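Data availability (excerpt). The following record was deposited with the supplementary files.
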Amino acid sequence: MSLFFERPQGGEKAVLVHLELGGEEPGDVAEFVELVRSAGGDPVALISGRRERPDPRHFVGAGKLEELRAALAATEAELAIFDHELSPSQERNLERALGCRVLDRTGLILDIFAQRARTYEGKLQVERAQLEHLSTRLVRGWTHLERQKGGIGLRGPGETQLESDRRLVRERIRAIDRRLERVRRSREQGRRGRRRAALPAVSLVGYTNAGKSTLFNRLTAASVLARDQLFATLDPTLRRLVLPGFGPVVFADTVGFLSRLPHQLVAAFRATLEEVVAADLLLHVVDASSPRRREQMEAVTQVLAEIGAGDNPVLVVYNKIDLLGEAPRLERNPQGRPAAVWVSAQSGAGLDLLLSAVAECLAREAAVELLRLPPSCGRLRARLYALSAVSRESPCEDGGVLLEVRLPRSDLERLLASEGLSLPAVAARTAHVTMGATHLRESPHGLE
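Predicted structure:
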């Protein structure tokens, strides 16, 4: 039995309510309107204003409530949408006072996610978030019910319909959690496999509609849905890409973030967001043409910290420079490391700079090692070549080979351990590479 909210087919007339509250940053009205349109709504009126604090009963004051009632009657709208989070009692009181359905910001975003989810995992995650939201609002439809009545063969403690529904919701959430845990374990096995294969992971993150999917498609020749709408991508997509001068990496396209993102969604999408947490490098894609660029970047940084990815290495990608007339460029921080790249995913301008910057960022933690492999290590040699990790090779007199390989040290050690070897046992000389400067160190085995 599906417990998803019923959704309109689209084009439903809605009156929007957006207030500026004292002590809070004002929200983006244009983004709110676009969210409503993304859900299939037809914004026919906007009620705006300012209050120091929300009214505990109706969120808005008596004057705004009357203005909202008049707007609903004038436009014949049957839905009022608030760009704020309403308490269950406020939502009930508003519906009773207005005689129409009332939706808050969280419910609106959940509806969009329910429409966008395509995969089994995505649908489970959205349903879980919806059920969490629904569980606090179950009282609205059952206030008229009394405790189930007894009778011949029916006597007993019984339970109210509300208690029964809450129990069913809790059981459904537990069932979804069990399924999502299996998905999480499957994803973790995939990540362990990539780590064993020494494949670095790069995740694209950013505000919704910043152009992540367009950029992902450009870089990997994928066919991820890319539209000029909020939350076009919900389900993560992974693709393998060989970086020039570095080797293969795995790119991941992920769900877009949003200011005031509902906590239910962050919790529900934990399995998906683990791809972000486990990434070796985050590409923070920014809509360079947005007038609220700074606020959007801060919202993304806040969500990254919330999910435990706040300390991951980040390369900022300023996208949509074609809308600004800017030229592609690479910016470096005071230490000389890549900090930001200005590109256009639409036209492809600057993508060569971006790939070079990604390779340089990943190579900072890599090491160049010269390995002496005996003839019996043919399988290890083949695996190193399969990873595009071999820079040079020369034969040894005993039939073995000298290989110059470039890999993150931890990945190389795991690869050697899987073959029953250790780095000191096969290292002839080690060259650590940091920002283009090479430091050589002789090993105890020397170099012939």
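Summary of structural features: The longest strand covers residues 41-51.
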